[in-house]
Amino acid sequence: MTSYISGEEGGFNVEIQFEGTWTPELQQAFVDAAEYISDVILADIPDVGGDYNVDDIRIEARLTDIDGAGGVLGQAGPTVVRGGDAPLPVTGIMEFDIADADYYNDNGLWDDIILHEMLHTLGLGTMWSYVGLTSGSVEGGDLRFTGANATAAYNSEFADIAANDAGSASGVPVETHGGSGTAGGHWDEELFGNELATGYVNGSNYVSSMTLASLEDLGYDTVIDDVTRDGDMTGPIPADPLNTAPTNVA
Q: How many independent structural domains does the chain possess?
């Protein structure tokens, strides 16, 4: 398989272009992640023509030799972003070291990593500051994601954590530790543990409604109901594709 497009015509579609020598098993994680995202994001977004000719988002998936097992896993994020009032990604990249891909696949975590990194290409963590949805700073140790939908989900879904957080009404705590690839672009690991959008992969991981709500805040029309947006679509939250029950949700 050299390419794949998820979803249905008229919905949100993730186009994946594979580069490198991929096994069907490694590719299947991309297919599953893309289909899950197409189930979460209900509405189409404006096409981009010209040199790109992209419906919703096109992701280049590369598998290559970087530095062997245990080194750099890879990189992921948007590469071209729409202009105007809806600065959502047009294209993105997901690049992985083949040795690490095989290691994580053998250990049952490849699906988790691919969904995590695909969410980064949509803007989760990679575009929060760009679209003005953060307050505080990494240096100050008080960085928060301020999107209204994710903040509401934080206070309801993680009520036990929020109850001990004096700033819970102002946003979701963001990771301020780790290197530049971790700090500033993930939920706080100490608070949210094995939630998929923290900066550290755990032995088991799950996707919270808070993470889905953050996509709504970025400008996608998702299954999360944004009551402030006229005509906003909503629907049932799809089953967690990682099939892991959360361990720290109230």
A: 2
Q: What share of the chain is helix, strand, coil (3-state, %, to 5)?
A: 30, 20, 50
Whether 116 maps to a domain, the answer reads: yes
Domain span at residue 163 reads 134-218
pLDDT, one tens digit per residue, over 221-240 is 999 999 889 999 999 999 99
- Which residues does residue 19 pair with via DSSP β-bridges, in sequence order? 62
Strand runs labelled E in the chain:
3-5, 14-19, 57-64, 74-81, 89-97, 134-135, 144-145, 172-173
pTM over 0.90: yes
Residue 105 and residue 56 share a domain: yes
Residue written as token pair 């997901």: 94
- The per-residue pLDDT for range 4-14, each reduced to its tens digit, is 999 999 999 99
Contact 61, 34 (CB under 8 A): no
Look at residues 4, 5, 181, 27 and name the one whose alpha carbon lies nearest to residue 105: 27
| The three-state (H, E, C) secondary structure of 176-222, written as one string | CCCCCCCCCCCECHHHHCCECCECCCCCCCECCHHHHHHHHHHCCCE
